[in-house]
Design brief:
The chain is of the alpha/beta class. It is built from 19 helices and 14 strands.
């Protein structure tokens, strides 16, 4: 089952990149460590003040379209080019949430509101125009936002914190400003936004487009967005073996069929599909219910020995596998092999593939549970020192995809024997050559 997608955009106004790199902000540092701290380009035609910049971020169009030229929003065209929270709520019926203390964002003050009609809204205006009052207002915003995000589960949210910007305006970029930046450091859950490196420079216009992409919402052409989905390069690739790199799924199916037949059971087509991607132990446990006089241990041993012999006799590579492994070996990103096959079978295949491309390998029995549980992929990511969100899994079977998605990884599916449908966080391609082609396109940007 694919994961339910949610998007949270945290806007911290007035944070300088050099300050962020200097002061202790552990949660934002986690985003940086995951590979996604990057300067964001502001168009030369955009006035460098809060109103125009946030309007561009939230609408995905430039200043000439949304018409917010200053911190007074009068004359805007936000009815024609609405923010993503309003568009998703009003056009798609999705649950959206906005929390902000700065009045023009959410009230009629100074020509607002910029965020016009989200499903749910939190507003705490500062009691006075002072840094201390802004800190109190932001703290109230955070308390409410945590409650709403935890208990109401909106699909797309925007939470704005304004104290750092106001502190800098009142007191300059000294100690009080740096303290305000530290205070605004958001909860670690936002680090999941930083799962991979951007493959090209990021612009303000791209944020709204990325929100739509993350929710699998294809923008209508008449929206005339100026931004686009941010292509990313994974920080690691976790590769399945059977059916993904080597064309062994037909071998496994035939082995399972022959072992079952030897013990009095004829495997149906549906049963054959259900064992694809599963370990010898899982398959033996299932067969034990159909061959009750044999025993799971005997069945597992027969499956492993017969499959090992078949793989040693012939384990042809799938299209694009050799080129992909060569690319990973020489140019990265780091790779791991994650298989539901026993270690002896994995090692036999590695003698054909060569293990140079892999920083680590995980075979059946080396994690607490095998696929479709997430344990093998969690182990591989941990061995590479990365969060699973930073990893791209390449899989061919529903069983392996279930394991990868349960681990929190993004998935590229290259179906072999069983059909796979696209889903949030999951792309489907014909073979491995498409992945290489996509990487080449991104590197040429």
């Amino acid at each position: 089952m694919s994961r339910i997608r949610r998007v949270l955009v945290v806007g911290i106004d007035g944070v300088r990149l050099d300050t962020l790199r200097r002061v202790p902000t552990p949660h934002l540092d986690a985003v940086a460590d995951a590979g996604f701290l990057t300067p964001v380009a502001v168009a030369e035609t955009t006035p460098t003040m809060s109103g125009p910049c946030w309007a561009t971020i939230l609408t995905g169009v430039d200043v000439t379209k949304h018409g917010v030229w200053s911190n007074d929003f009068s004359g805007h065209r936000l009815g024609v080019f609405p923010d993503f929270a309003t568009r998703l709520a009003r056009q798609d019926g999705r649950r959206t949430y906005v929390a902000a203390a700065w009045e023009p964002l959410v009230t009629v003050a100074d020509g607002g509101p910029m965020l016009r009609r989200p499903t749910r809204l939190t507003h705490h205006a500062p009691a006075a125009d002072t840094p201390a009052a802004w800190e109190e207002a932001d703290a109230a915003i955070v308390r409410d936002a945590v409650a709403v995000l935890t208990h109401e589960d909106p699909e797309a949210s925007f939470v704005y914190l304004g104290a750092p910007d106001e502190t800098a305006h009142h007191l300059g970029c000294g100690d009080a400003y740096e303290t305000s930046v530290e205070t605004a450091d958001p909860d670690e859950s936002t680090a999941r936004l930083g799962c991979a490196r951007p493959a090209r420079p990021v612009r303000h216009e791209d944020v709204a487009a990325q929100v739509y992409a993350a929710l699998d919402r294809t923008p209508d052409s008449h929206w005339t967005l100026d931004g686009a989905r941010i292509p990313t390069v994974p920080r690691a690739v976790l590769l399945d073996m059977d059916g993904t790199l080597v064309d062994t799924e037909p071998l496994w199916l035939e082995v399972t069929r022959s072992v079952a037949a030897a013990h009095g059971h004829t495997l149906t087509e549906a049963e054959g599909a259900s064992v694809l991607g599963r370990s010898c132990a899982d398959t033996a446990a299932w067969l034990d219910g159909h061959c009750p006089d044999t025993g799971a241990d005997v069945l597992e041993a027969e499956l492993e020995e017969t499959f090992l012999a078949a793989v040693e006799a012939d384990a042809p590579l799938r299209p694009g596998a050799r080129a992909l492994l060569d690319r990973l070996e020489h140019d990265g990103p780091p790779a791991a092999l994650v298989s539901a096959s026993p270690r002896r079978v994995v090692d036999a295949v590695l003698r054909t593939l060569g293990g140079e491309a892999f920083r680590t390998t995980v075979a059946d029995g080396e994690s607490d549970r095998s696929k479709p549980h997430p344990d093998p992929y969690l182990m591989a990511a941990a061995r590479l020192g990365l969060p699973p969100e930073a990893c791209l899994v390449v899989e061919d079977s529903p069983t392996g995809i279930a394991a990868a998605e349960a681990a929190g990884c993004r998935v590229l599916a290259v179906p072999s024997s069983a059909p796979i449908e696209p889903a949030p966080g999951r792309r489907v391609r014909f073979d491995l050559t498409s992945l290489l082609h996509e990487w080449a396109q991104r590197e040429s940007v």
